[in-house]
Design goal:
This protein has 372 residues and is of the alpha/beta class. It is built from 8 helices and 17 strands.
């Protein structure tokens, strides 16, 4: 299967720069797989497509302010990528005179060590000073398929405290916030780029599970009153979700593993619902991959904590989910391949063409899609 099969042209003006207000006023593109036809609604109409007994699974991971700005200890300044390396088409941006260091934390390895992205040459042992008593040492340079490794020194202070004080929310490269450098601008970004149900005790994502951005408290309450059962899983969104596919043969692509947690009680309730023939509706591709990975485990009676690198593309046989709530995804992305596996390549192609004609808003802050 070729990567080029998942390409499409999107007019730049259809890339959403701001979320809908209120969140659930975004549009909802409904795909009925069996009938092969579409409906155009608003996200707050979602309840009309759900019924009592349905189980809706949401990813409650919280986005961390993973973008840190500092300088080399020597006084020479460099700049690491934001999330621009996540987009293979994004060119390196011009550096300020002297440069800056932007350390984009990707995934915690343990003991203060993090995989990170930088876009400039550094040497092992270099110190990047973020603030007094807060620095990052370059431990390892990237090799094929690997990223930089940095070790954070918090000077005896709490990491979460320092991250909240000095970190910035890393937005995708196709979003240009109006005023990202001010405190008020950062607060607005952090609020917009976080689901309302993100758990403060589940910090770890470097990007939002964006299908969940459409939900409001009132919509969730409305669904629960209707009898929809809400369940939460945790997948810390990292490079596995957004790493571009670089091989023309997509089967050669290796997914980057992401950390997942599912409580034992949640696993039991999901199993019971499936046995009773109730529908499982996954909110977002992260929930899809978590549930499908879980369905393939031999021991399904225990709490689940593991690293997941499940790559879903056309030909995959789904075992757990019955419906997906998602956004419109980038060309040639693993996310587009996943929804194509669920709904069929041709139907998804037609849906995206129709969405462009109808001027739906695409990507992270864009409109939603319900695949039934």
């Amino acid at each position: 299967m070729k990567l080029s099969e998942f390409d499409y042209y999107l007019p730049r003006e259809l890339i959403a720069q701001q979320p809908a207000t209120p969140r659930d006023n975004s549009r909802l593109f409904v795909i009925r797989r069996e009938a092969g036809w579409f409906e155009h609604r608003r996200f707050h109409d979602l309840g009309e497509y759900l019924q009592a007994g349905d189980v809706m699974v949401l990813n409650n991971s919280r986005v961390i302010p993973a973008r840190l700005i500092g300088r080399r200890e020597t006084g020479r300044l460099v700049r690491s990528v934001r999330s621009s390396q996540l987009d293979q088409n994004t060119a390196d941006k011009p550096r300020e005179a002297g440069g800056k260091v932007e350390v984009f934390l990707l995934q915690e390895i343990g003991d203060g060590a993090w995989e990170a992205l930088l876009n400039r040459k550094v040497i092992v042992g270099e110190q990047i000073i973020i603030a007094d008593g807060f620095s990052a040492e370059v431990v390892k340079l990237p090799t094929e398929g690997q990223k930089w490794l940095v070790k954070l020194d918090c000077g005896g202070r709490g990491f979460d405290e320092l991250l909240e004080q000095y970190g910035q929310t890393p937005l995708p490269p196709y979003i240009s916030p109006e005023d990202p450098s001010t405190d008020s601008g950062q607060e607005k970004i952090q609020e917009q780029y976080q689901t309302i149900y993100a758990d403060p005790g589940k910090k770890g994502s470097v990007a939002a599970p964006t299908a969940g951005l459409h939900f409001t408290e009132s919509l969730l309450e409305k669904l629960q009153r209707k009898g929809v059962q809400l369940e939460y899983i945790t997948l810390h969104v990292g490079l596995g979700t957004f790493e571009p596919v670089r091989s023309e043969n997509i089967k050669e692509h290796q997914m980057h593993a992401e950390y997942v947690e599912v409580e034992r009680e949640t696993v039991a309730r999901l199993q019971k619902a499936k046995q009773e023939g109730r529908r499982i509706i996954a909110v977002g591709t992260t929930s899809v991959r978590t549930l499908e990975f879980l369905a393939r485990q031999e021991d399904q009676d225990a709490e689940f904590r593991d690293w997941v690198n499940l790559f879903i593309y056309p030909g995959y046989e789904f075992k757990m989910i019955d419906s997906i709530i998602t956004n419109f995804h980038l060309p040639k992305s693993t996310l587009l391949m996943l929804v194509s596996a669920f709904a069929g390549q041709e139907l998804i192609k037609k849906a995206y063409q129709e969405a462009i004609v109808q001027k739906y808003r695409f990507y992270s802050f864009g409109d939603g899609m319900l695949i039934l």
